[in-house]
Amino acid sequence: MKPITVFHIQKGRLVKIPNPGTFGRGDCYLVDAGSKIYLWIGPKSTADEKFLTAATAVMRDTDRKGKADIDRIEGGHEPPEFKALFDRFQLTDQDTEGILRKVQLKTHEHKLWKVHHSGAETFFAEVPLNKSSLKSEDVFILDAWDSIWVWRGKNASAREKFDGNILARRYDAERVGVQEIEIVEEGEEPQEFHKAFP
Predict the structure, then answer these.
(1) Which residue ranges form the domains of the chain, and what is each CATH number?
(2) pLDDT of amino acid 166
(3) 178 Cβ contact partners less than 8 Å away, ≥ 6 residues apart
(4) How many C-beta atoms surround the C-beta of residue 54 within 10 A?
(5) Residues 32, 85 contacting (CB under 8 angstroms)
(6) pLDDT digit string (tens) for 118-146?
(7) Which is it for strands 111-118 and 139-143: parallel, antiparallel or unpaired?
């Protein structure tokens, strides 16, 4: 078997799979084969899982200065060369819960999400809705129902700021209604931003 690394999207983060070759129809996977990166998209996967898989592939390709070839594989329609990467290839009905399934569409509950990049991974996780959760080293997405704020810490990396903007748009697309996405730099928060916290 060729040297490959397979990552599974689990609640907003990439998790390396120790024994690659098994793919769940409700999930998404990134298969890093060096010169080629495959995005395996399960037919029952959610929008957030698909997005994070694609975003991570682009980030890895950027790290290689665009030299990697990125291929999207629709689950159930794998070409022979893809299956040949594994000693044993199989599909299961596995379905890991996606982060955006937790978005409350029928209530006006506010939520705060942390965007953090470490190594080759981008983390997107809900944190307590409290100003003390905001850290200068990271980017946060505040869902204030009518507005979605992207709060950018003064020490956040350019990658985290980039990811925060894209994830906010993806998050917005999963919501019902009309929201505005507003960028807020640490130390320049308007009153409306502060009022969104309890």
Answers:
(1) 5-98 (3.40.20.10), 103-195 (3.40.20.10)
(2) 76
(3) none
(4) 18
(5) no
(6) 776 677 777 899 999 999 999 999 988 77
(7) antiparallel
